[in-house]
Design brief:
- The structure is a single chain.
- The protein is mainly α.
- It is 53% helix and 8% strand.
- It has eight helices and four strands; from the N terminus they run E-E-H-H-H-H-H-H-E-H-H-E.
- The strands form two sheets. Strands 1-2 form a two-stranded antiparallel ribbon. It has a two-stranded antiparallel sheet with strand order 3-4.
- Strand 1 and strand 2 form a beta hairpin.
- The protein is globular.
- It starts with a strand and ends with a strand.
- The N terminus is likely disordered.
C-alpha cells in the first residue's frame, strides 16, 4: 500500500510517501520532502522583469531603469572617468598633476551618487531588480578598479605591485558578490535594513584615495620625490622589486573579505 499526500501553502510543497516492505519485515518508511520557495516581487519589480525579458524594442532596457538606477549609473561613470584620468596622467608630463587630481576627485563624486541612489529609491518607494546588481558593479569600478589605477599611475608599477593591486580589486569583487548572496540572511533592524556590514565596505577605499591625494600634494609620486618607502629589491632586479606601501592595498583587501569584521550600519 502506498500513501501519497501533497500540501501547498505559500509556495511550500511537501510530498510524503510510505511503503511497507514485503516478507513480514518491519515497515520501511521513506520520507521525501521538497520545499520550493516562491519568489515574491513587488508590482514594480514584476513590470521591470517583463520589460527586461521582452524581445521587442531595442531600447526597452531604458524603460526598465528607475531613477535610482540612473543615479547608480552616474557612480559608474565617475569611476570610469577616474580611470581615464589616471591613464591620461601616465601618458602626459609626470610633473603636471592636473589629470591626477581629476582622477582622485571623481571617486568621492562616485560615493555621492552611491549614497543618493538609495535615498531616491526609498523616497520614491521603488525597488529595482537591477538596482542591487548595478550598485555592485558601479562600486567595483569606482572604489576598486579606480583606486588601483590611481596607485599604478602614481608609481606602483612593478610586476609584483600590479599583482598585489589585482589582489585588492579581486577582494573587492568577491566582497560585493558575497554581499549580494548573503544580504537577505544578515540580521535586520526594525526598518528591514541589515544591522551591520560583513567586512569593510568597498567605499572605505576612499581612505586610501585621501592618502594618495596627500602624496600628490607633497610630490611623493614616481618621477618626482618618489613613492613613500621607496622600492625593495630594486626595479632592475629579476623580479622587479616591490613598493612596500602596496601592503596597504593588500591589508584593505583582506579586511573587505573578512567574515569576522562586523561594522554597524549608521
Amino acid at each position: 500500500m502506498a500513501l501519497r499526500s501533497s500540501v501547498a501553502n505559500g509556495g511550500v510543497e511537501k510530498t510524503t510517501s510510505s511503503t511497507p516492505a514485503d516478507g513480514g519485515m518491519l515497515p520501511l518508511i521513506a520520507l521525501t520532502t521538497t520545499v520550493q520557495f516562491a519568489e515574491v516581487h513587488t508590482p514594480g519589480q514584476e513590470k521591470q522583469k517583463k520589460l527586461l525579458a521582452a524581445e521587442a524594442g531595442h531600447f526597452s532596457i531604458i524603460k526598465a531603469l528607475h531613477l535610482a538606477d540612473l543615479i547608480t549609473e552616474l557612480n559608474g561613470f565617475c569611476g570610469f572617468m577616474s580611470i581615464l584620468s589616471s591613464m591620461r596622467y601616465c601618458l602626459g608630463n609626470p610633473q603636471s598633476y592636473t589629470p591626477m587630481w581629476f582622477a582622485l576627485a571623481f571617486m568621492p563624486f562616485g560615493l555621492f551618487f552611491d549614497f543618493m541612489d538609495g535615498k531616491v529609491a526609498r523616497w520614491r518607494k521603488k525597488s529595482s531588480l537591477m538596482g542591487q546588481e548595478l550598485d555592485s558593479l558601479a562600486d567595483l569600478v569606482s572604489f576598486g578598479v579606480a583606486p588601483a589605477s590611481a596607485a599604478f599611475a602614481l608609481g606602483l608599477r612593478t610586476p609584483l605591485d600590479t599583482l598585489l593591486l589585482s589582489f585588492f580589486v579581486l577582494c573587492g569583487l568577491t566582497r560585493l558578490a558575497r554581499f549580494n548572496v548573503t544580504v537577505s540572511s544578515l540580521p535586520k533592524d526594525a526598518t528591514g535594513k541589515s544591522k551591520y556590514f560583513e567586512g569593510t565596505p568597498i567605499p572605505t577605499s576612499l581612505c586610501i584615495v585621501a592618502a594618495m591625494a596627500w602624496c600628490v600634494s607633497q610630490g611623493y609620486v614616481e618621477g618626482s620625490d618618489g613613492v613613500i618607502g621607496g622600492v625593495w629589491g630594486g626595479e632592475q632586479s629579476w623580479w622587479g622589486g616591490v613598493h612596500p606601501i602596496v601592503a596597504v592595498f593588500v591589508g584593505w583587501g583582506c579586511a573587505m573579505v573578512s567574515r569576522t569584521i562586523h561594522i554597524p550600519k549608521p
